[in-house]
Amino acid sequence: MVGWYNELVDKVFHLPYHADTVALCVLSIPCMYERAFKPWIEANKNGNMLVKDPIDECVGSCYQKVQQNLPDVALDFIQDYEQHHGTRRPKLLVQTAGHVSGAAYYYKRSDVKNDPWHEKKRIYGASLHPRFGGWFAFRGAIIMKDIQTTSIPRVLPHDSLPTDNQKIDFLDKFNNNWQNNMFRDVIPVADKYSEEQQKYFETLPKNRAALLGLKQNVDQDG
Ligand code: B12
Does residue 186 sit within a domain? Predict the structure, then answer.
């Protein structure tokens, strides 16, 4: 529910919908790369030059399909990379959306009781999925703007890291060593990114199109 999200975030991040509006939080799990992304690349290889990040564009085309399949439902889509013009503030804080939807627990510095970090050090929060650990990404939200209800039960996200030490370890790995992907493996996982997918994400955004055999991107700010 949009209201669950708006209750937590600062006013500047509020979504402009009634509190009882139904929304879906969208995640991609490891098989996204093989099952959605590669077929989409194959189908679009000879099309127009890509102007955005290929993954973002693929997700956008999935959202279009959702709307085509639900022609009578008014939907708004917000992708994870979208920003407000001028302020460059993200349109949606996907980690908070993931937490209130019950999909993935969002661990923040304030969740740690015995905080070991220097007070001036910036510690970013990170989310953990109960089945895929850190091997997933948020892709945005679908807002069903004309559907309002108060009957959806609230499901709390699963807390996979109950102790302070586990939370500290996870946040340390995410903040100080995210490149080695160890933050993704702090719990046993059902699936993880294939070697090829890991290589794709390790490649600088400006070189990813070439890796996929595509024409050069125009906007390389991926
Ligand atoms: C800007 C950004 C960055 C910036 C700054 C990070 C930051 N967190 O501010 C930089 C460039 C550093 C960055 C880096 C990375 N990022 Co980044 N980044 C983002 C982005 C686009 C916006 C984050 C943001 O600006 N937040 C604003 C701040 C103010 O939000 P906040 O701290 O959560 O505060 C809110 C909550 O606390 C909430 N709140 C208040 N009280 C309560 C109480 C409860 C219970 C809850 C739940 C919430 C809540 O209200 C606050 C706002 O008012 C998000 C995607 C998105 N659209 O959200 C990805 C995102 C956070 N990044 C992500 C990743 C993976 C990374 C990197 C690993 C690089 C990569 N491979 O992409 C690195 C790792 C960090 C590092 N060590 O450098 C993932 C994290 C996935 C996860 N498992 O959590 C995200 C979600 C992208 C995605 N599509 O999945 N990132």
Answer: yes
